[in-house]
Amino acid sequence: MANFSKSQVPQFSVEVYQNAFLPEGGREVNAIVTVTSTGGGTTGGIPLADAAPAYGAGQGPGAAVVLMVDCSGSMDYPPTKMRNARDATAAAIDTLREGTQFAVVAGTHVAKDVYPGNGRLAIADAQTKAQAKQALRKLSAGGGTAIGTWLLLADRLLNSADVAIRHGILLTDGRNEHESPEDLRAALDSCAGRFTCDARGVGTDWEVKEVTGVAAALLGTADIVADPSGLAADFTRMMENAMGKEVADVSLRLWTPVGVEIRFVKQVAPTVADLTARRTEANARAGDYPTGSWGDESRDYHVCVLVPEAGIGQEMLAARVSLILPDPSGAGTPQTLSQGLVRAVWTDDMVASTSINPQVAHYTGQAELAQVIQQGLDARKSGDFDGATAKLGRAVQLASASGNQDTAKLLSKVVDVVDAATGTVRLKAKVAEADEMTLETRSTKTVRVKK
Fold first, then answer.
1. How far apart are CA 384 and CA 32, in angstroms?
2. Strand pairing report for 122-123 and 28-38
3. If you placed Cys at 261, which of 24, 40, 306, 407 could pair as Cys (CB 3.0 to 4.6 Å)?
C-alpha cells in the first residue's frame, strides 16, 4: 500500500448526533456519526461543493483498476448486449486518469486477463487506452458464469500494484451457475479488505442477491442497468467516482469502556450496510469496522451500544468513535484522522429522556425501509400476497414519511398506492421484471436527514 504524506490525506471530520439522556435504568444509547472527507478533487458519494482539491489536474494517489466483463454465452442474447458491454468498458477506459494501472478481465466459467495479459497491469496513457479498446473489440460471448474466479484474478492483478487505491468494476448479465455459492463466498472472503468493487447487473436474467452480495462484501455499489444501452453512461460515472477516491482502508474504530456492549454498527447513508459482523479487534477495548475508499464525500453511521445501569445524575462516556488510517508498512502507529464522543447521562427529566434525536429516528426508519422492501419482495415471490402487501405498504409509509422520493417511485411500480400516509396499498397484478429487480437492488439507498 502506498504511503501518503499528511498533506495528501483528505481532511476528515466526525460529528455525533444523539440524545445523551437516559431514564433511570436506561441502557440503550444510539448515535448517528457523520463522517465527512474533503480535499480530494473529484466527488464520490455525496458531493461537497466547497471542498478544495488536494491534487492538481491529472494527479492523484496511485490507483489500480480491473474491469471484469461478463463474456458468457447469454451475453449474445440479444447481440447488442455484448456490443453495449464493450462500448461501456471502452468508455470507462477513456475515463481513467493518466498513470492509473489497469487491466481488463473477460469472465466466463473461467477468468482471462485479455489486456494487457500475462498477469500484468498496464499504465493508462493514450497508447495503452487505445490498445485496451482494440482488445475489447475481440471479445465474444461463449461459456458459463463463475464470478468468484473473476474476482480472484482481479485480486491477483491488483495485488501486484504498489498503489493506494485498488478497485474493481464487475459486469454480469446472468446467474452464477458454474460455481457453488460456497465458492463465491470463499472468493469474496478472500478479496474482502484487499480491493473495493462496484457490481452491475445488465438486463433481467441475473440474481440480485449475488450482485448486491459482491458489492456489500467488497464495499462497493450495486445497481441494475435494465437497458444495455445505458451501460456506457453508468460505467463512465462509476469510473469517475473511482478516480475521485483519494485514500483507502479507512476504518471506523469504536472504543468502549468496560461493561459496555455493542449492539450494532451500520452505515446508514448513502446506503444501508451492516458492518457489525465485520469488526476486527484493534486492542482489548476497541474494534475496527471497514469503510473502504474515500474521496470528497460524507457518510452517516448508526452506532448502538448498551451501557451499564446507573443512577440519576450519573454520566459516562459510552463510546469513542475514531477514523483510523493504518500505517502502510504495518509496523507503525495508525493515524487517527478525527474522532467524536458518544455520551450517556441519566436524568429524571422525562421530556429529556424520552426525546428521540431526529437523526436517529430518521435513519432507524431508513434501515427499516430497506428491510421491509426485501421482506415484501421475498413474500411476493413465495406467494404470500398478504404478507407482501403488509410489508410493502409499510415501505410506502416509511418512504413517504422520510421524503425518500426515489424509493417511493420504485415502490409505485410494484404496488398501487391507496394512501401513502397509512401505508394502504394493493399489489399490482402484473409487474415488469426490471421494475421489481430495480426496487430490490436499490432498496438500501437512503436519503439524508435534513439537519
1. 35
2. unpaired
3. 306
Quick one: how far is CA 377 from the chain centroid? Answer: 21
With H, G, I as helix, E, B as strand and everything else as coil, classify residue 304: strand
* Type and span of the H or E element at 95: helix 79-95
Q: CA–CA separation, 96 vs 300, rounded Å?
A: 29
pLDDT band at 44 (very low <50, low <70, confident <90, very high): very low
> For residue 298, what are the β-bridge partners?
36
pLDDT band at 333 (very low <50, low <70, confident <90, very high): confident
10 Å CB burial of residue 310 (0-12, 13-18, 19+) is middle
Residue the block writes with cell 444501452: 229
Q: Is 306 exposed, middle or buried (0-12, 13-18, 19+ CB in 10 A)?
A: middle
Those residues with Cβ within 8 angstroms of residue 124's Cβ, 6 or more apart along the chain or in another chain: 93, 96, 97, 98, 99, 100, 101, 102
Q: What is the DSSP letter of 75?
A: G
Query: Residue 363's closest CA among 401, 392, 390, 394?
Result: 401
7-17: b or e for each residue (b if 16 or more CB lie within 10 Å)?
Answer: ebbbebebebb
Query: What does each C-alpha distance from 16 to 255, 310, 342 come to in angstroms?
Result: 15, 22, 7
CB contact set of 34 (below 8 Å; sequence gap of 6+) = 14, 15, 16, 17, 298, 299, 300, 301
Confidence (pTM): 0.90
Under the banding of pLDDT at 50, 70 and 90, the label for residue 326 is: confident
Peptide bond into 181 cis (omega under 30): no
Helical H runs in 228-288?
231-243
